[in-house]
Here is the input.
Amino acid sequence: MLPHAGTDSRIWRDVVALGADLKALAEVRGSTGTASVAIAWDWNARWALELPSQPSEEVRYLDLVRAWYEPLWRSGVAVDFVHPSADLSSYRLVLAPALYLVDDASAANLTGFAAAGGTLAVGFHSGAVDANCHIRLGGYPGAFREALGVRTDELFPLLPGESLGLEGGGTAALWSERVALAGAAAVTSYTSGPLAGVPAVTRHAYGEGVAWYLATHPDPATLAGLLDRIRTEAGVEPVRETPEGVEAVLRRGTQADFLFLINHGDRSAEVQVAQRAVELLGGKSVEGGTVTVAPGDVVVVRESR
Here is the structure.
């Protein structure tokens, strides 16, 4: 960790400061995250989605995941990234933005999560192929067809720069499908193009839970509003109310909770915390139930229960 410039350098001083911070945060060890939202991430699905044989070379796995994650991050909602086969019982909402490839066990795990009372949201072109990249016959979205209550018989990828109108305002780009309802209800439909009047986003009561299908890629504002509706209906709230640009993550320990605050903005921000709280990095009690987070700074607060 010693830079070429030696100890008389900013890098060295930052490394020393990091060591002191880690020592101050020693009691956080053993605590667990409290996220109630998970995004399904699978490297095999990413590889398969970006094969040259795909209907569109514009569809990129990481772009789709980022597009779904960003509105939640900006809303202060904590999100875990999990494999589709992981234990989902601790979550209220699971998002699968781009699971073109999904094995049978993982598909059953995700749909079983919804059937047991969770909320599942699936992105376009998902569930199409199995673990061996073999197409699931009978129509798209393959493995998720029953849970989503829809059936697609033809794909309509969009050209770069091309967009379609959506009911209620907003546009869709990148992708569209000819979706037929098979139990689901249309949330919004296309208002232009060859699929005018065809559902673009659907909602399906499945078992004890709900399954959503986004058969297209809405513009950022429309997608943010849709995800806000989905997570609100699922009972997902932000970790803490914070000013814009301040990220909050809560970890739960056996004796106390630990609130991490990161100010990504260029102005100081005030955040409400518990009355009985200690700022760990500064080693001081919090006065008045609020902490100040300077621009670019991190504050970690222990909140006694």
Observations:
- The two ends are 38 Å apart (CA to CA).
- The mean pLDDT is 95.
- The longest helix spans residues 10-24.
